[in-house]
Amino acid sequence: MKRIGVLTSGGDAPGMNAAIRAVVRKAIYEGLEVVGIFHGYQGLIEGNMELLTLGSVGDIIQRGGTKLFSARSLEFRTEEGQQKAIEQLKANGIDGLVVIGGDGSYRGSMTLTKNGFPCVGIPGTIDNDIPGTDYTLGFDTALNTVIECIDKIRDTATSHDRTFIIEVMGRDAGDLALWAGLAGGAETIIIPEVEFDMEEIVEKLKSGTARGKKHSIIIVAEGVMSGSEFASHLMKHANIDTRVSVLGHIQRGGSPTGRDRVLASLFGARAVEVLLAGHGGRAVGIQNHQVVDYDMNEAFEKGEDFDLLMYQLSKELSI
Ligand code: F6P
């Protein structure tokens, strides 16, 4: 292995830049060349890439977004697109590829590996939904962003004795909603992994008001339904008036937390080591505080674990 490529794909996540930096610096330290591929798999198909130096990744560890830009490529989902991508990798003398991204990006890298091109995945998504790793890059930063928003909304909710519904991202996963709801002291957390009971929610709101509570915060994960849909259910069901806040893409931005920067550095370095060892089709991650690499296919077949105890705790603490 003499030259490797690195790309970011799918929704950007804070910490991607720190991971790019780690990949480039570790690879150069090991005597490799690194090519940065712009705009994810679409840029790969189009040959949009350049050689990166130590200096190219200076002053980015603290920045959100991704220096390499990102995209969701429809063309790469076709066999023709995948073939073009492999031709570009070969034409540019690239021997292995580090893919930083979420679920769709991982599936892309599994396809490339299956077609004979070694790829290693670094989990970069605020959704925390990649099988085989306890945390993904960007999750901690997004979590802190959501908590800050909840705290601010609570101020105005209390001032007006209001119930607020806050819609949180996470695609089909409830991790961001659950963690933020627990940390933000939300009264109710609605996530795709657990069915909700409207009667129970209404009862809780009513008994809270009867006890003199000045506000209620309901977190709704986007994977269940939109905040406004939930608000109209609540209105129809119990005539409860609410205000809705959709946090949206604010959750994807901002300077990565220390935790995300450290994870990014560990993941980036490990990804280079995995490629140097000649392995493809693997992902790096963290399991029980240990940095690990593992077979991507097996992990995806097994699927994601969900922490039901944490959900249960969030209910116990918000009675
Ligand atoms: O996967 C990251 C994510 O932010 C999800 O939480 C969200 O559902 C999706 O991306 C939004 O995608 P887009 O930026 O393409 O609208």
UniProtKB/TrEMBL annotation:
Report the pathway entry. Answer: Carbohydrate degradation; glycolysis; D-glyceraldehyde 3-phosphate and glycerone phosphate from D-glucose: step 3/4
Native species of this protein?
Psychrobacillus glaciei
The similarity annotation says:
Belongs to the phosphofructokinase type A (PFKA) family. ATP-dependent PFK group I subfamily. Prokaryotic clade 'B1' sub-subfamily.
Subunit structure comment from the entry = Homotetramer.
**PANTHER family named in the record:** ATP-DEPENDENT 6-PHOSPHOFRUCTOKINASE, PHOSPHOFRUCTOKINASE
Residue ranges the record marks as coiled coil: none
Instruction: List cellular component terms (GO).
Output: 6-phosphofructokinase complex
Q: What is this protein called?
A: ATP-dependent 6-phosphofructokinase
Q: What is its EC number?
A: 2.7.1.11
Q: Where in the cell is it found?
A: Cytoplasm
Q: Does the keyword Glycoprotein apply?
A: no
Q: Which UniProt keywords apply?
A: Allosteric enzyme, ATP-binding, Cytoplasm, Glycolysis, Kinase, Magnesium, Metal-binding, Nucleotide-binding, Transferase
Q: Which residues bind ADP?
A: R21, A22, V23, V24, R25, R154, G185, A186, E187, R211, K213, K214, H215
